[in-house]
UniProtKB/TrEMBL annotation:
Keyword DNA damage: no
Ranges where the Tetrapyrrole methylase domain occurs: 3-205
Family (UniProt): Belongs to the methyltransferase superfamily. RsmI family.
Protein's recorded name: Ribosomal RNA small subunit methyltransferase I
Organism placement in taxonomy: Bacteria, Bacillati, Actinomycetota, Actinomycetes, Bifidobacteriales
UniProt subcellular location: Cytoplasm
Enzyme Commission numbers on file: 2.1.1.198
Keyword rRNA processing: yes
Main location: cytoplasm
Role played: Catalyzes the 2'-O-methylation of the ribose of cytidine 1402 (C1402) in 16S rRNA.
GO CC terms, sorted: cytoplasm
Length: 246
């Protein structure tokens, strides 16, 4: 039997590619890539010859592809799964093949590496002992507000992925739900030349987004509710009477 290997790829800085990723690109029998052009571009930058068969594996065809790829694994192939950047399965394809491999009792392993969630969390300066990854907020403003309201009593540091198109709306939603004083960090272009971390509060980061709109890829890291806010009770925290801390 072969193996499925999930491998993280750089999120901006090619130098973050691991030696293991390079070896896998050279030697895997099959490379299942979210976008094959991006895979070849990465291989070019790394000076690597992709030795195996390359197949496209994106969100839309992942489930149907999974079983065919796993037939190859059952027959002895090493199938390398990569996404466009960072760790596959983290808001990226890869989940379907992991699930099916587990169901079919086929081996899965991981060649870890860059992922924006941990990079941003570590750089934020906010508590890291407990955190929750929230992925992307819903697209519609009203759904964002509803989702953030469900997090009002969250004590863990929260990590949100964001895009340049919706950052204004997200900052407005954060202000509305958490108020201006909650500590947060906006981390952009991580590992790239123009990496920048804007640390402050929801209010100060919202101001900076207005006066100096951030470009590129970004992650928002927001502190959980503080003990003081909790102690101040439901009124000060703007919480309903039936609200309970998580
Ligand atoms: N699988 C990836 C990972 O492990 O981080 C995430 C893929 S998700 C489709 C893309 C989002 O990740 C971006 O919108 C942004 O929020 C975040 N991201 C990826 N690369 C980043 C970078 N270099 N700097 C800041 N955020 C980044």
């Amino acid at each position: 039997r072969g193996t499925v290997v999930l491998a993280a790829t750089p999120i901006g800085n090619t130098g973050d590619a691991s030696a293991r990723l390079v070896a896998l690109l050279e030697h895997a029998d099959i490379v299942a890539a979210e976008d094959t052009r991006r895979l070849y571009a990465l291989a070019n930058r790394l000076g690597v010859h992709v030795g195996g068969r390359v197949v496209a594996n994106h969100d839309h065809n992942e489930r149907e592809k999974a079983d065919r790829l796993l037939d190859d694994v059952a027959a002895g192939a090493t199938v390398l799964v990569v996404s466009d950047a960072g760790m596959p399965t983290i808001n990226d394809p890869g989940v379907a093949i992991v699930r099916r491999a587990i169901e079919r009792d086929l081996p899965v392993t991981c060649a870890p590496g860059p992922s924006a969630v941990l990079d941003a969390l570590a750089l934020s300066g906010l508590p890291t002992d407990r955190f929750c990854y929230e992925g992307f907020l819903p697209r519609k403003h009203s759904d964002r507000i509803a989702h953030l309201r469900s997090l009002r009593a969250e004590r863990r540091t929260m990590v949100f992925y964001e895009t340049v198109h919706r950052i204004d709306d997200s900052m407005a939603a954060l202000l509305e739900v958490f108020g201006p004083d909650r500590p947060m960090a906006l981390c952009r272009e991580l590992t790239k030349d123009y990496e920048q971390v804007r640390r402050g509060t929801v209010g100060s980061v919202a101001d900076s987004v207005r006066t100096d709109p951030p470009r590129g890829e970004m992650v928002l890291v927001v502190a959980g509710i503080s003990d003081e806010e909790l102690a101040a009770g439901t009124a000060a925290a703007g919480l309903d009477d039936d609200w309970q801390p998580i």
